[in-house]
Amino acid sequence: MKNETQEFKWVGKRPIRPDGVDKVTGRAKFGADMHLPGMLIGRVLRSPHAHARIRSIDTTKAASLPGVKAVVTGSDFPPPPPPVWQAAGEVPVNFRDLARNVMARDKALYDGHAVAAVAATSAAIAEEAIDLIEVDYEVLPHVIDVKAAMKPDAPLLHDDLFTDGVSPKPDKPSNIAKRMEFAVGDIEAGFSKADVVIEREFTTKPVHQGYIEPHACVVDSSEDGRLFIHCSSQGQFMVRQFCARVLDVEISKVTVVPAEIGGGFGGKTTVYLEPTAGLLSRITGRPVKMVMSRTEVFRASGPTSGGATKIKIGATKDGTITAAQATLAYQAGAFPGSPIGPGCMCAFAPYNIQNVNVVGHDVVVNRPKVAAYRAPGAPISEFGVECVIDEIAEKLSIDPIALREKNAARQGTKAYYGPTFGPIGFVETLEAAKQHPHYSAPLGENQGRGVASGFWFNIGGDSSASVHINEDGTATVIEGNPDIGGSRASLAQMAAEVLGIDYDKIRITVADTSSVGYNFLTGGSRVTFASGKAVIEAANGAISELCARAAKLWEIDADAVEWVDGEARPAGDNAGDFEPMPLSTIAGASGKTGGPISGHASLNVKGAGPGFGTHICDVEVDQETGRVSVIRYTAVQDVGRAIHPGYVEGQLQGGVAQGVGWALNEEYIYDKDGRLDNPGFLDYRVPVASDLPMIDTVLVEVPNPNHPYGVRGVGEVPIIPPMAAVANAISDALGVRLKDLPMSPPKVLASLSNGGSRTPS
Amino acid sequence: MPRQHVTTEVNGEPQDFLCEPQETLLDVLRDELHLTGTKEGCSSGDCGACSIMVDGRLVCACLMFGVEAQGKTIETIEGMAEGDKLHPLQTKFLEEAALQCGFCTPGFLVAAKALLERNSDPTETEVRYWLAGNLCRCTGYDKIVRAVMDVAAETRET
Amino acid sequence: MDYKAPNSIDEAVKLLAEAKGAARVLAGGTDLLVQIRAGLAKPPLVVDVKNIPELRKISTDSDGIHIGAAVSGAELGEHDEVKAAWPGVVEATELIGSTQIQGRASLGGNLCNASPAADTVPALVAAGAICIIAGPDGQREAAVEHVATGPGQTTLKNGEFVTEFRLPKKLPRSADAYLRFIPRTEMDIAVVGAGVYLTLDEKGVCQQARVALGAVAPTVLLVGDGSKAIVGSSLDDAALDRLKAAASAACNPIDDKRGTVEFRVSVAGVLAKRAALIAKQRAEVN
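^ Those are the sequences you sent over. The predicted structure of the assembly is below.
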């Protein structure tokens, strides 16, 4: 572990998080914990068919059940807005599709697609009413698999969807929503220079974010058309905008109060229930609470794409990669918008390669519309790339870390998707991995070791914050990002550092949409970076004012005062003329010097520092059952600067656990009728405590020059390397290269009987 | 079906309530008694977010009818701290960042407390298997397991 | 739904026999509540048998061990006598679900839920356990393997329910073992389960054996060819290979989300072999 920095008082320390006590005592209020007087309970009727035309819906029986206060279907919603794409998190959104995903209109496009909803005086009545709604479906042929969906004769989900990005513009509709290409150099010339060329095909299954808290909201509509939304999400401003668009109301009429959020990982960067609850509340004039069951979470929210990828890499004998090519197809779910863009851009980004060609396809299938999931798109493409790199290293008898080091992107490398990297720490992660005792520890029988790296951009974006100096010398920080993993702590630490007061003098609040300026959502590993900059700037604004007030009391010029260690000091010609004045004194006198002291910032933050990580994984394989156990794991990552190292390590450890689940057991399983066969935690197998070893972390700190403390995003990189690290470790143990996720026991066992060597390589 | 009258003790206080027979104890705790610290993550006994103690046994509140609580002693997360004094597990989870979103945390704390009351010196493997019914999607379990073992070690020393 | 919690077996039989529609017995509830929640079961009446003292008791006498059908897994696991005599049965019970599930789940529920993948059933069948069934016509006994007839189906008649399990008195140089395969280390339903009970003579030759498999057919299988494969042997490699082959041959599984036919057939043999080895090691020191 990196030595914790001594130069700061709060940055780099591990204080107790401000919301901690509430979260260990049961006091914290999550999405489903809100009760309002007169509250109704809403429930959703969901399509049992993968693909069906909705001929008619008869709600009369349901509506006449005593206790039922409203029943709605797609026709009760305003017409969907036009299909204009806009940035909305890490994957773009168009509100026509969003509206149709919230409530089906003419067609149900996946098992679990909402087709109607009720509000009733109790959950039991609402559930009974759901059973009384009669839907006349015309069941249509469906398509689940991404490759099958790309075939010319595949069942079409949308007859108005024409492949974007090809010329000439196609005249026939297709399930391929978009084709994109990124190319530099001369790909064929690159391969012709190579001594070894390896081309492999990989598949990955859709996996769910798996947050433990199901989606939940309470919406209260007022007689004058205002909406008060209390819900768990990754962004109250996102919920405000999405609900305003789907329900066609002005943004100023919508107030969203962020509940505590019980995990998101990208899956709560959109809305599912809130517009419906809003409509039901508007009709009934009463608050409506809606909470998804776990089954609904799996059937109707998230997951991320499954993908089919083909990766081809060529290298010379000395390990120089001369060319790299990828063809990617990502499932978008029922509406266009898979994370194919980032998948294309990240695939080879860790490496400095002169000749690159990446082609990506965004493909609709009869599954729930995908949502962002931790570095959306990157794990799918980088999995294949990191496996092929490992195979090239094996073929050339070069250490896999050394091969990566030889080709690693460095400061000044121009990435094939556009930018030239500033200071980045990829090489440093490789060095740290190589030096780590794990990398040279002996392995036992049936054990193997794998290495893989990962890249993610990280993002900045819009953030606002306020810092209020209270009259007793404490400070209130107002910010607008739901705290998903300790960001109140990291923001408060930076505020304490800037203001020069103790961390426990700061109270930080995640405000509702009416109480703080706009904030882009919690995602893209942006909060500590971008909202951190807003908090720092707001704190600096407060400091300017504090200095001005001190100057007033001293009767000197404001710019002749400097702020050091939480107190105003006369500077320049006046240096030493007055005793330093602490923040509490200035705050206490604020009524006499000009009133309340605050600082505000509303920023568009640029300059997020790209993140790189390198992981080492040891596995042990039971050759008779195909069971793979992860027995040791080390995650190394360039984190820029760890503001609260405890929560930074936690991001790495959590990402690894999700990646190991993705690698070994997690998958969406559909039956022949296109129904999800494992919509629960029993058969959608996320790792449990006994499945994992301790996850060792190494925090490499190559500061991001675009942040006062050097912060880079850290949350997403750690989910990228594990799938390949596990696959490469299995290969090391068994001599078998598995290319299809998850590498579940039946697949491992089958690979052994299909020609894999049973003697470790 | 008429609501049934159930008499229990919750967190040391007598507590009676009315509930329909098909309501789970989790429904009763959250919706009737407003003890929302006990969380609903799956309602099928697979996530452990609703872990509570009933007559000294660790159970999932979602897998028990409210009416089954007749005459039983129930302990929830809301009863874990004594006044303003946090339980050592609560303190250690905070000190060691053993939570991220905090949603699974009440269930983990209740389950870990039950473990330490039975076994003051659990191995890492014992901790992991005891807690296998509590899903955490944020932490990768590392810091949770360490916190539980650290509390066990500190309790043995004192 | 109505709920009753009788205090005696007779009262429970009466409630069940007189119920209109399919009343359900509630012990630990870890299957029943999930089924009700998912809408798979809509019983008009639930009869909670946990207040019947006989169903919560563990006792031993000259015949062997009596285990009340509603005894929880946690209670069984804390019973040193049962653990010493029938470690395989106890291990199988403790494999059901999480610690939380252990606080509730019972042998009676695991058997009568009639899942082919129930963990305790192969262990109980291998052990030669019988169950006591109370009903309107009085009490009857049945071998455990004769209770379930298919997924969710049992031979229990209207008004009948299982009150007790009896494990035979353990013989010298005898032991049982149970293993199951799941993709994770915990929290899954068995993809394959294998229970083995065997008796060795003083030279270590297997005198008798019972081999049972779970999750590889519509009901738990008692594999006669499995015992034939090892009886008379000292469980040498050849005998274990015969057992492995016999276990695999007995399987009649399905492909589903938990495993393929090929996988189940292959792993059933592996687990039978491994369980037999554990039972052998235990018998040698008994």
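Chain A has three domains: 34-140+213-262+268-300, 307-458+609-753, 461-605. The domain at 34-140+213-262+268-300 of chain A is CATH 3.90.1170.50 (Aldehyde Oxidoreductase; domain 3).

Shout if you want it in another format.
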